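Lab manual, section 2.4: Encoding a predicted structure.

Procedure: take the sequence of the chain (714 residues), apply the prediction step described in section 2.3, and record the output as structure tokens. A sample record is shown.
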Amino acid sequence: MKKGFTIVEVITVIGIIALIITLAVPAYFGVVEQIKKNNYDNKIKLIEADALEWAEDNNITDKTVITIAKLIDDGYVEMDDEESTDKRVINPINNESMECYHVIISVDGGNYTSEVVESDDCELLNIEEYEQNILIEAYPFDKDSGKVLSSTPIRLLNNRFDWTKYDVLLVTNSDVYDNPKSISFNSGGNNNKKVGENYVGNIKVDEVIDVDNYKNLFVVSANVLLSAKYEVLYELELESAFRNVYVNIDKENPSGNFNIDNKWSSGGTKEVELIGYDGVGSGVKGFYVSKDNKDKGDNFINAKDDKASISLEEDLYYVWVVDNVGNLSDSPTFEINVNNSDNNPPECVYPAGNNTWTNEPVTITWGCRDSESGCVTNNQSKTFNTGTITSYTIPQFTIKDGVGNTTVCEAKTISIKFDAINPTCSITSNSRKSSSGWYIENANVVMTTSDVGSGVINKGLTTGLLQYNGITSVVQRDTKFTTYNGYVKDAAGNTNTCSFSLKVDTTAPTISGGQIYDGYFTPSTATDVTSGIDKIYYYYSKNNTKPTVNSSGWSASTTYSATCETTYYGFAVAKDKAGNYSNVISLGSVRTKACCTVKTGRCYSPGAVDTCNGVTKYCRLESRGCDNGRWEGGPFPGGSGGYVIGSARCGDGGFTNGDRFRYGNYNCPGCSSGYISNYVEVSGNWLNNFASRSLVSGGSATCRCNSWENYSWQ
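Recorded output:
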């Protein structure tokens, strides 16, 4: 069974809810109002920022008042409602239009500030209307005594007060704004705000005024010169009104100079141009010209554009300059010596010369100087900008002044000391060097310098950057690669550089290992930390005397020709790429293998081969011939006197001593073609050659031979 609420419980709950509503509603509306206020403040800040952008784009130079509607129309303020015609920007607090709000833009030293002022008047007063509503006058004023120096105000034209040589009392009044909250006199970032109820009315001469007691008074003072814009700002209830004026104070005395005709004559007057200077002050009013340097006199010449012209006879004159506010030089500003006579010849002018060396172009000028009628001869000049030169002789020249006086100027030699040629330097080393380019002893590196002009004053030899350390020689020890830089500077400031690269290796390589064997070596091992190993050489000998590196017989080959049954001793040496040799090391000894007999003499097996210790012999044909041959045929001539009778034997081609040839045999000259014709006759124990006689008579003789062959080991 469900149980409901009692009447008492329901009434209690309703009461609690009513209490909560009573407490929460006011707090809720307070939060809402604060949110609206924050939105309004943020909107004002955005509009003021948009106004600054508008002022920069439109190059605003003076204080300006515009409406928010203007910023909307020009596209600088974003609209809340683009469809609306009168509420394009809405106040978030009261939901009213903000288009007629005024925006005051101020300019101070090129910097802009802006302020939004609430208003419902979209018809703005223009600047001229503001100025008409604010009256500003200025009076000469002595701030030390507090006295007004004249009851006549300083003239104001186009918002600019005329120049004055006194401090200025600014007085402002308005028939429209009769009681502003404050009046400010602002200039150059200085805001001079005045409040109160007291106003000064008419200004009287010599009236002593306590400026601080009056709301509408302000003193502008200057020590020397002042030309400044002052903004007089009226702070009203809902807006501000302003007017700009320019105050000009000139307490500085003017100065001056003159131009006089430089054409001299025999007499008469001179036209003199008087020139006044007043800087940025009130400007030059005129000149007093007097022959008395204590009294300016009454001879006053009005100036036009700060200048005046006057004709003066020969004499000495003194000139005072007066500016437009009455400032007068305390003493003569300058003096004018009007003199038409010039009886003095012009002076020769020579250049002083240059006593310090330089590499900048040197220009010398010589010519004429004349303080009276002036020179008509042009000066001459010469510029030196190439090469080197120590002096120059100016040739003889003639000068003339304005009235015809001349002077012959003698030739003169002057010092020039110009040097545009760089010094030179070179770096070398005369130490021993290998064919591969490595220095094989400590290298003496030497820098030499020279200069054809001003002379070397600074030099340096280093492996680094520019350094005039005075060093010209160093000793370079073991290194793989080094570059030396030379720097040189002459007295004129010209510089140059040179460089030299070298590699040095004075350390011998090391060698170890290896062994001699029958006809070959096992390789040795060598190292060199600088230039590296070039080659390893081997040597063999029948004696154990260690060879030198210059001994003949060294070879890079690891094999050699060995004789059998011989003892050989081995040695090795290493050479690096710089040409350094290691110490010679022993590779031990070896006894070669036993010898075999090489066959010689006759052999009887044609084509046989025999090898011993690498030597190969072959059984080859050595010779062949005709043995025991006989002459056959005939008849042979007979008779006495040494002629051959009977048969003759064909032998080795020569006669045998002691043979008798009348009835016996004889040796014939070989058995070649088998025929003898037109050959020899026998007489005694030799053969005489008779071309017309023949041993053969009435026939031919044939040689019949037994052939033979000889073989030997070859």
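Check your result against the sample. Helices lie at 7-57, 68-73, 127-133.
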